[in-house]
């Protein structure tokens, strides 16, 4: 759980809209924060408005090429977003192999 600690004397409060499995990514420059959840196939990134607790899906990230896909980064630091949301990067693991055809062996 995350809490808001105002600097102007208001009460401390829990951050509404934050879910147990969320991973904090970045403070937005518009009164929101970026959060992620997902699995090995995709990452869901949400924008959460700090004052209202309104949560909206901002972007869904998937591997650019499914061939050899092993996983997509779920840990903190494996997805990065700029505060304005204009740029982002994320981690994808792949393992591409080769297939060889051998003919005429005796």
Task: Explain the layout of strands and helices.
Elements: E1 3-4, E2 13-14, E3 23-27, E4 32-38, E5 43-49, E6 55-61, E7 69-72, E8 79-81, E9 88-90, E10 92-94
Antiparallel strand pairs: 1-2, 3-4, 4-5, 5-6, 7-10, 8-9
Walk me through this protein's architecture.
By secondary structure, the chain is mostly beta strands. Helix content is 0%, strand content 41%. The chain is built from no helices and ten strands. The strands form four sheets. It has a four-stranded antiparallel beta sheet with strand order 3-4-5-6, with no helix packed on it. A two-stranded antiparallel sheet has the order 1-2. 14% of the residues are buried. The model has no long low-confidence stretch (mean pLDDT 88).
Please give the oligomerization state of what you see.
single chain
Could you describe the largest sheet, including whether it forms a barrel? 4 strands, antiparallel
Beta strands, count: 10
N-to-C order of helices and strands: EEEEEEEEEE
Q: Which regions have little confidence, pLDDT < 50, spanning 5+ residues? A: none
How many angstroms does the end-to-end distance come to?
66 Å
Structural class: mainly beta
Structural key phrases:
41% strand, mainly beta
Short description:
With 106 residues, this protein is mainly β. The chain has strands at residues 3-4, 13-14, 23-27, 32-38, 43-49, 55-61, 69-72, 79-81, 88-90, 92-94.
């Amino acid at each position: 759980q995350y809490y808001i600690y105002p600097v102007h004397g208001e009460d401390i409060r829990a951050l509404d809209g934050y879910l147990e499995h969320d991973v904090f990514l970045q403070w937005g420059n518009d009164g929101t924060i970026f959060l992620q959840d997902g699995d090995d196939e995709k990452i869901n990134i949400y924008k959460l408005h700090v004052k209202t607790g309104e949560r909206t899906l901002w972007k869904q990230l998937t591997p650019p090429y499914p061939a050899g896909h092993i996983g997509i980064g779920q840990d903190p630091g494996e997805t990065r977003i700029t505060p304005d949301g204009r740029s982002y990067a994320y981690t994808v693991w792949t393992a591409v192999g080769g297939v060889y055809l051998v003919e005429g062996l005796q």
